[in-house]
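Retry 2 of 3 after timeout on previous attempt. Resubmitting structure tokens to design endpoint.
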């Protein structure tokens, strides 16, 4: 197949994408014809040189983005991707984009407008899953277990000390301390602060508002962090859960990507049969309720004090490096990295074929 790999992006997780995409390129079947498109931090799409994929396979580092003004890609509604007026010959697009402008429905909308098949969740599933506040509301309405939380908009917070005071009071009364303050629509633990006392809340909210216009405050749970890989469109396959054991106070951005000893990754997680069954069942429900397609990693908290299980979040484009939890959990159950990528390509093509059968006009 002719595959366009999208990576980089206008996101705080830009560097993570460079590493994830490099791993995807190295593990895709060499029989495919790969084109690479790096998205700069300003959102510009640059088609990379024809031999970029071959060079990536010979390296063990992250992908780079060559910014050639003559290689800027455009999206042509209904026709695909264009370079200097010529339409690229593509079978499918593989977005390996994390965070804002990556897994939030924005590039998915572009690809839908261009009538291009692509890997992963569609616009709704991507946008809903990215907004931690909204997906928790959906899960809670369906009766799935979520950690208590409150959300707050930046416009209500700025220059409104009365509203701020009311929100701080609500946090203290309904959630207590400690709490986590986080941007609602950002991944990789960017902008998250753990707050132990009321006087730290305002500063933590200001940090969260640097990355999103909506923040959420969530009750801190003395929890084990359990993760589960899920594959599929309507029918899903849920893989054996793994566990993150951070050496930091929580699984922060530094613990994930900067400190090489920031966490231990355990596959499988040390759980009994009933716990594994419950996690896999809830993961499948959470995935469907989020309208996820293709793939996702569903994350849980398992309370050490009460042994109660909580849904934490869902990531529709999880980390794809060779040491990332998502491919490793699949590998534990017998699905190799190359087989996983082929499965994702086929799921993307299948969804595109099904959507083409739909009628969008009454006449």
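Retry 2 succeeded. Sequence:
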């Amino acid at each position: 197949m002719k595959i366009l790999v999208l990576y980089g992006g206008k996101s705080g997780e830009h560097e993570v994408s460079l590493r994830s995409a490099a791993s995807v390129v190295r593990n895709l079947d060499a029989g495919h014809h790969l084109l690479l498109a790096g998205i700069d931090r300003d959102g510009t799409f640059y088609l990379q040189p024809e031999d970029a994929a071959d060079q990536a396979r010979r390296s063990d580092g992250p992908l780079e983005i060559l910014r050639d003004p003559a290689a800027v890609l455009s999206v042509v509604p209904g026709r695909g991707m264009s370079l200097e007026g010529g339409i690229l010959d593509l079978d499918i697009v593989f977005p390996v984009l994390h965070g804002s402008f990556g897994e939030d429905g924005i590039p998915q909308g572009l690809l839908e407008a261009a009538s291009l098949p692509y890997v992963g969740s569609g616009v709704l599933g991507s946008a809903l899953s990215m907004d931690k506040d909204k997906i928790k509301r959906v899960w809670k309405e369906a009766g799935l277990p979520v950690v208590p939380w409150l959300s707050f908009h930046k416009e209500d917070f700025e220059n409104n000390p009365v509203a701020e005071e009311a929100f701080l009071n609500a946090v203290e009364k309904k959630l207590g301390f400690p709490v986590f303050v986080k941007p609602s629509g950002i991944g990789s633990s960017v902008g998250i602060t753990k707050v132990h006392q009321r006087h730290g809340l305002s500063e933590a909210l200001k940090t969260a508002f640097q990355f999103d216009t909506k923040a959420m405050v969530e009750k801190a749970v003395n929890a084990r962090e359990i993760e589960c890989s899920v594959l599929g469109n309507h029918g899903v396959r849920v893989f054996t859960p793994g566990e993150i054991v951070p050496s930091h106070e929580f699984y922060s951005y530094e613990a994930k990507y900067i400190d090489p000893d920031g966490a231990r990754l355990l596959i499988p997680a040390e759980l009994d049969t009933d716990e594994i069954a419950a996690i896999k069942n809830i993961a499948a429900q959470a995935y469907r309720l989020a309208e996820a397609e293709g793939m996702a990693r569903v994350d849980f908290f398992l309370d050490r004090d009460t042994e109660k299980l909580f849904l934490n979040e869902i990531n529709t484009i999880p980390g794809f490096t060779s040491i990332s939890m998502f491919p490793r959990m699949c590998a534990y159950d017998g699905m190799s990295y190359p087989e996983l990528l082929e499965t994702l390509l086929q799921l993307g093509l299948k969804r595109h074929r099904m959507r083409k059968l739909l009628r969008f006009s009454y006449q």
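Attempt log closed. The radius of gyration is 21 Å.
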